[in-house]
Specification:
429 residues, Porin, 18-stranded antiparallel barrel, 2 helices, mainly beta, two-stranded antiparallel sheet
């Protein structure tokens, strides 16, 4: 039903745009081109097996925004993606895609409004809802969002489903892109509100109902309610954030869902080189599999974990403990250096070790496992905004994962270091 209503309204606003006089709109157009080379070495922690992979990705965003007056705005963002993957087995696997990343009409009356069509949902630290912009084929949603924004209150209420997202990884078999989900499989209904106590200081509260039909190809059916809060603040050079979330629901198999997650972080920024030192603790209880009628791993798949729990994507916000120390400094104008150290554990040794998406198992759980020390990940990054060429940004990263006893126990004693690197050039014009 939601899909049919969305399609009807999308067609309606397209027809409306055709009828509007072209000269009534003031269009603002831009483009964003990104080239990325990334290299994966030994992600299975076993140097005896050749698992090295490298990839070259190209992504082009075209953006067009128009203001038709009377509170009506239109935003169009077509995208084109080309990925060339070079697997360990040799050869190359190519993948291309062109579609609409975003396409919506917005009508605003005073502090309130409605946004209809394909759009991003980006909230808080994106631990629950984010656009996954790191990926070449980023995440968007089809549906409707009502919003209200008048200090000190901001509130969004939405009813959406994930847009059909083509597989992020190319395959040699045809077709080269498999749909992860279809529009009919999933829906999200929820609200996200913010109350600001002072500039930079406030409280978020949210509720999200997530439903997947049993026929979904990506997973079994489920009905989940996710709700929580996030407090954040800035005082002089100090910043801090704390977020806690609960999840309850049922799976189609009759198993009940009972999960939670916590994130606390703080930092202080010094005047010297605009240097920030930070510390963070992330935690989510694991499932020891002792009760077959209850599932205790956090399972929300629309987050953007890549920036939070290590850029090598070995962890999700489930069955984990992460102590993170971070540094960011800008010794010269336009140049930033970032360093992160993640000390990583599994919360429950017998539980599954889940990857960044939270839906893939890096190592399956076992009642015989007793080790929880996952390892240490170190990420070093340079970001340079080229002053001589406005809009050009260069990014380089190198990461290394030193595995701990939990890897040895699950990986036949193999505990070789894994590494990850990328080079990015992006140009906005």
């Amino acid at each position: 039903m939601l899909l049919r209503v969305t399609r009807f309204f999308c067609l309606a606003w397209v027809a409306m745009l055709i009828c509007l006089p072209v000269q009534a709109a003031e269009w603002k157009v831009s483009a964003d081109l990104r080239e990325r080379a990334q290299f994966f070495n030994n992600l299975d922690f076993n140097s005896a097996a050749d698992a090295d992979v490298w990839e070259w990705d190209s992504r082009l965003y075209l953006k067009a925004k128009a203001d038709f007056g009377n509170g009506i705005q239109v935003y169009l963002q077509p995208q084109a993606v080309y990925i060339q993957n070079h697997p360990a087995a040799g050869g190359a696997e190519n993948f291309t895609q062109a579609d609409l990343h975003q396409a919506y009409v917005q009508y605003q009356f005073g502090e309130a409004g409605v946004k209809l069509g394909r759009q991003r949902l980006v909230y808080g630290d994106q631990r629950l809802l984010g656009h996954l912009g790191w990926k070449d084929v980023a995440r968007t949603f089809d549906g409707v969002k009502l919003f209200y924004d008048a200090e000190p209150v901001k509130l969004d209420v939405f009813a959406v489903h994930p847009a059909d997202i083509t597989s992020m990884t190319p395959t040699s078999a045809s077709p080269q892109g498999q749909s992860l989900v279809t529009s009919e499989d999933q829906r999200l209904i929820g609200g996200y509100g913010t109350f600001m106590f002072a500039p930079g200081t406030g409280l978020d509260a949210y509720f999200i109902n997530w439903h997947i039909n049993q026929k979904a190809a990506s997973n079994t059916g489920r009905k989940m309610n996710t709700f929580g809060g996030r407090a954040f603040g800035k005082w002089d050079g100090l910043d801090a954030t704390a977020e806690y979330v609960l999840q309850r629901g049922t799976w189609s198999s009759g198993v009940s869902q009972s999960a939670s997650a916590l994130a606390v972080k703080a930092g202080y920024t010094f005047d010297a080189w605009n240097t920030r030192l930070g510390v963070e603790f992330d935690f989510s209880p694991g499932d020891d599999k002792a009760d077959a009628t209850k599932h205790k791993d956090f399972v929300f798949p629309f987050h953007t974990n890549h920036a939070h729990y290590g850029e090598m994507d070995r962890f999700s916000w489930a069955n984990m403990k992460d102590v993170r120390f971070s540094l960011k400094t800008s010794p010269v104008s336009g140049l930033s250096f970032l360093a992160d150290v993640h000390l990583l554990w599994l919360d429950e040794a017998r539980g599954d070790w889940l990857n960044v998406a939270g839906t893939g198992t890096l190592f399956a759980g076992n009642t015989a496992y007793v080790q929880t020390r996952a390892g240490t990940e170190i990420n070093l990054k340079l970001v340079y905004k080229v002053a001589a060429i406005k809009g050009l940004k260069l990014v380089g990263l190198y990461g290394i994962f030193n595995p701990g006893a939990a890897v040895s126990e699950r990986n036949g004693g193999k505990t070789d270091n894994a590494s990850f690197a990328y080079l990015i050039a992006s140009y906005v014009f």
